[in-house]
Amino acid sequence: MLDRDRTIAHELTALGADWLPEEPLSVHTSLGVGGPADLVRLRDFRRVPDVIGYVERLDKPWRVLGGGSNLLVSDEPLGDTVLQLARPRNGLSFEGNRVEVPAAANLGTTVMECAKRNLGGMEGLIGVPGTIGGALRMNAGAYGIEIGPLVRRLTVYRASTRKIEVLKTEQVKFEYRHSSFAANDIMLSVLLELPERPYAEILEKVKLFNQKRRASQPINEKSAGCIFKNPPGFSAGKAIDELGLKGTRVGGAVISERHANFFVNGHQATARDFLTLIDMVRDRVRKAYGVELEEEVIIWRS
Ligand code: EPU
Q1: Does the Cβ of 190 fall within 6 Å of ligand 1?
Q2: Atom of ligand 1 nearest to the CA of 143
Q3: Whole-number Cα distances in Å, 38 to 21, 158, 299
Q4: Whole-angstrom Cα distance, residue 198 to residue 128?
Q5: Are 53 and 280 contacting, i.e. CB atoms less than 8 angstroms apart?
Q6: pLDDT digits (tens, 9 = 90+) for 238-247
């Protein structure tokens, strides 16, 4: 470690955070691609404003990383400092049919922990990779369930006020794969209200959705979920499939044989491979259907 890094690491430790200089982001993304960036891992979310104050004095912009499961990071060094919440030590806290969940908790684990307390309503989200924070930001959804409507209260670091704020549902807009948060707002914790259901019933649904997902999505390969949003009344996956593009490859990036809106890392893919494949597919769909596909995956360019 350089002297400068040692100093930063020391000062951040005092703020409850870790300094990981030039961390390869490829190990933090489900696609397995991404160049290096300085990473700050926050262990105590009450210290977020202090840590951000410190990071800003390093004179580089910063951005927030969740579970990295819906993210395509460029191959070149990022330049920006990346902030990530550490996995929470304290778990979920239940109160009747409400549960407070730390944003860095895993979404799938949360679904199952709630199930054990006879709280359902999130079964469709089983198998959606990533954190609760990422799910909130993207308003993650599957099989007719979205996380947004389950939210009752949110604790967020607001980039605009530079403070931790507690927001009511009415203060946030959740839309299809989109929320009204600013790019550098940081989800810290959420209160969800869930319908009470017998554990066995929840488990049955979870099994069903797992089967559905296994049959239609490449769950054991490195992907970022669906690459494109579905425009209203149009299925991106169906269109890409109809164009015969399954199996198309650019370098190590391949259009999944199982679901055409999933692009997988076949072998040693680069971000450039994925970006080229995305542009190529968008072009083909535009020419064939007159529809402009918009990415669902978040792209970080350096
Ligand atoms: N289809 C094909 N070929 C394919 C893929 C799909 O013909 O290669 C057809 C299917 O047979 C079906 C239609 O297209 O008739 C829709 O496919 P599917 O049911 O798989 O759903 P999707 O619209 O492609 C959406 C979400 C998924 C979510 C599933 C299940 C988006 C962009 N995708 O996929 O979410 O898991 O529904 O609810 O909204 C994600 O957000 O990353 C994601 C994967």
Answers
A1: no
A2: 38
A3: 4, 22, 18
A4: 22
A5: no
A6: 999 999 999 9
What number of other Cβ atoms are within 10 A of residue 175's Cβ? 10
Measured over the CA atoms of residue 262, residue 268, residue 277 and residue 299, the dihedral's sign is positive
pTM exceeding the 0.85 threshold for the entire prediction: yes
- Residue-wise pLDDT for 181-239, tens only, equals 999 999 999 999 999 999 999 999 999 999 999 999 999 999 999 999 999 999 999 99
Question: In angstroms, what is the span from residue 299 Cα to ligand 1's centroid?
Answer: 21
Q: What is the arrangement of strands in the sheet containing 263-265, beginning at the earlier edge strand?
A: 249-250, 253-255, 263-265
Q: Residue 216 CA: which ligand 1 atom is closest?
A: 20
The CA dihedral of 298, 230, 222, 68, to the nearest 10 degrees, is 30
pLDDT of residue 90: 74
Question: 164 with 48: CB under 8 angstroms?
Answer: yes
| CA-closest residue to ligand 1 atom 9 | 238
Looking at residue 196, its amino acid is: E
Using pLDDT thresholds of 50, 70 and 90, give the confidence band for residue 176: very high
Query: Given the CA of residue 217, which atom of ligand 1 is nearest to it?
Result: 20
Please give the span between the terminal C-alpha atoms of the chain, in angstroms, as a whole number: 23
Average pLDDT, whole number, for the chain? 97
pLDDT for 19 equals 98
DSSP-assigned beta bridge partners for residue 265: 253
pLDDT at 91: 87
Is 261 a pocket residue for ligand 1 (Cβ < 6 Å)?
yes
